[in-house]
Specification:
By secondary structure, the protein is an all-alpha fold. The protein has 3 helices and no strands. Helix content is about 60%, strand content about 0%.
Amino acid sequence: MADTPEEIKKAQKKYLLIGLILFAFTIVTVAVATVPALDFGKHGFDTWDAIIGLCIASVKATLVALIFMHLNHEKKSIYLFIVLGVLGGLSLIGLTGWAFIDPIEYGTATEGNGFFNPEMVIEEE
């Protein structure tokens, strides 16, 4: 932490610079999403636009965590929990993606889709 006025002024300049960088990255994110000249991939919002937006958001989140949340001054053991959290999040993303490519279709059972069981049909009286 800052103890002298000089250190406080230096910290203020750093926080202002990081704030300006975050603001600039926000403008870049909006530009990538809206400006046709910066449209990557197919026309409109697609996978490439999402990947670029998430990369920009990751850089911004890292800056916030390191600078404003003071994680750059933490003990080394905190990084184990950060890595475990990131790995847990990535595994959840992977499981979600795996669920979307699963060939099983859930929903109402109808004849011809392989899930229809005539014994399970309840006829109304």
